[in-house]
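May I ask you to comment on the folded chain given beneath this request?
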Amino acid sequence: MNELERELDYAHGEAVPELGRSIELLPGIRWVRMTLPFALNHVNLWLLRDRIDDDGRVREGWTVVDCGIASATTRAAWEKVFANELGGLPVLRVVVTHMHPDHIGLAHWLTERWNARLWISATDYNTALLACRGLAGFGGAESAAFMASHGLSDPAALEQIAARSDYYVKLVPQVPATFRRLVDGGVVRIGNGPEGTEWTCFAGYGHAPEHMALFNRARNVLISGDMVLPRISTNVSVIDVEPEGNPLALYLGSIEKMRALPADALVLPSHGLPFKGLHTRIDQLQRHHAERFADVLDACARAPQSAADLLMLLFKRPLDLHQTTFAMGESIAHLHALWLDGRLERRLESGVYRFARR
């Protein structure tokens, strides 16, 4: 546990669910963890005990929040969950916080498996549709050219990025044909007992097009998705389909709005451990990015910098290809936040964007 984590309260300790099993955090709220084939090797998913009135027929069961990637391992783990963790009850609906593969990957399979409806923001649903067709900035020749324009020059890395045009569809082969829309401030009623059943949607921007976190005020529980994570900072990237984007400003504004939620809420993040200390973690994240901004400004005052020039300054560790693509997106995001705020100027030199202190 690092120094920043010690400022948080890991209310349920450090035990994590075994693959295919769950841990009950509160009555009717269960924690499932699926594996990922990346350096970030897991994603947390949630089971909420539910009851719905389905056209006049009351049905008992569970709502699934987020799905894991489409893989044989994840499907097999879900089958164990269905057999051992649901008390013989069905999945009634599938809620997805956002369109990234570890969250929506198996949504199609889950909704077909249980004849359930997908609930997601319209923006993320439609972006997932585009990504399944190779049109949303998840690799391919356009992504490689964009990375090159920001200083990535390693031919092998660029070749691999260009070849990854099927990266998203391998992890998300299909999305459900229909969905129910989640909107900012909207209330989804999930529950079957005396506990509060109203979960309010909080839209967040920057990490995904229209990420939805869910807050239950009666139980003081926040399903934060990827917007607030306890151990790592959320990836916020500029991608080729929005080449002048400013996602980091959107992200920082989004988490600042989450201060309206109680400081002692139990936060259920998509990666890491459940914790209390929401406001403390927001402070940490805001401070982290302020420090990175200062580092970038200092470097750009000494000499014009491309995003690739800043990778070691911002990340200070060796990066594999998967990490490099995320790191490049984040480096561009820091530069763009300062450029669009008027603190840096952008120049195109020999086909590469470089940024200098005004």
Notes: The chain is about 35% helix and 25% strand. The mean pLDDT is 95. The CA atoms of residues 82 and 88 lie 8 Å apart. The first strand starts at residue 23 and ends at 26.
